[in-house]
Amino acid sequence: MENPTLRKIIHVDMDAFFASVEQMDHPELRGKPVAVGGNKERGVVAAASYEARKFGVFSAMPSKIAASKCKDLIFVKARFERYKELSYQIREIFFSHTDLVEPLSLDEAYLDVTQNKKGIETATEIANDIKETIKREIGLTASAGISINKFLAKIASDYRKPDGLFIIKPHQVERFIEELPVKKFFGVGKVTAEKMHKMGIFHGRDLKAKSLAEMISYFGKSGKYYYEISRGIDNRAVNPNRIRKSVGAENTFSESVFTKDEIIDKLFPIAHTCWTRYDNSNAKAHTVNIKVKFDDFTQITRSKTLTLAVETEQVFLDTILQLVDDLIVLQKIRLLGCSLSNFEFEESKIEVKQLTLGF
């Protein structure tokens, strides 16, 4: 294990967050298979309860397929404002231990507790305290992974779900990675895993046997990342000031649209939601994007980059109209979305000194 710094990193991941919130707020849903988002005919599952997962229902699955896998599946409408409200409460619990908190989404975050506010000796005690506080004050369960870097902590948090706690100590890192199937490596997707399997790479030990030059020749820029993580190397700091790269909104329709008039009619309310989110940020975007998903689930995007930053909603809408006008629509559309990206942020930097202590 060649990592030159030893830090105490915790990855906290809420258990089936959206679905668990719905079951908490609506007791009649507890113990039942629940899918958040979509309905039996349209849409996509945003989250599935553990009862639904037993039937093979998972997030990002088309609702129609989910319904066919579980005949008793209960679809509920997503309430993102409620999820955000609870997510902020959970983050306050994180911040009571450390200021080095890096949210990845509403339901997960990295914490660097190498130094912590309460003077707790071990990361394990901190993780247990976080889990117990979330359960006591909010009523939900979380799983936590603990290790010396972000890569290992992320993998560890998934090992004992739900309501789990898993620790990979420094002396365990090398053996753990060598025995880990490559398909479980964070950052190795299904396609990459299949490519590795064809090359005879099935576990971390197989990956570790390859040289850096070989990995780069096989996988390009990602090769260096795979080379390092197979050796337990991940020097990324927990960044409490992660920069958001885009702001967007989208919607799946109960009835598909086809004509450009229908597209504009459906897209403008989505655009208004997107603009509200953008207007509340401190960013200046130069690129406007639209997203189109057809009935056969194929997807296209179109974008336009402006020399000047997008300052008004009218400029945003006018640019969307141009993108829609250039669209060639050959089949019905089930989902539309739009976003602003290519951000230019106001200068504001916070310097954080990273201390490194024993685990």
Automatic annotation (TrEMBL):
Pfam families registered for this protein in UniProt: IMS, IMS_C, IMS_HHH
Cofactor note: Binds 2 magnesium ions per subunit.
Family annotation (Gene3D superfamilies): 3.30.70.270, 3.40.1170.60, 5' to 3' exonuclease, C-terminal subdomain, DNA polymerase, Y-family, little finger domain
Residues annotated as domain UmuC: 9-189
PROSITE patterns registered for this protein in UniProt: UMUC
Keywords noted in UniProt: Cytoplasm, DNA damage, DNA repair, DNA replication, DNA-binding, DNA-directed DNA polymerase, Magnesium, Metal-binding, Mutator protein, Nucleotidyltransferase, Transferase
Catalytic activity: DNA(n) + a 2'-deoxyribonucleoside 5'-triphosphate = DNA(n+1) + diphosphate
Cofactors required: Mg(2+)
CDD domains, alphabetized: PolY_Pol_IV_kappa
Stored NCBIfam families: PRK02406.1, PRK14133.1
Complex formation: Monomer.
Family: Belongs to the DNA polymerase type-Y family.
Protein name: DNA polymerase IV
Originating species: Marivirga lumbricoides
The gene coding this protein: dinB
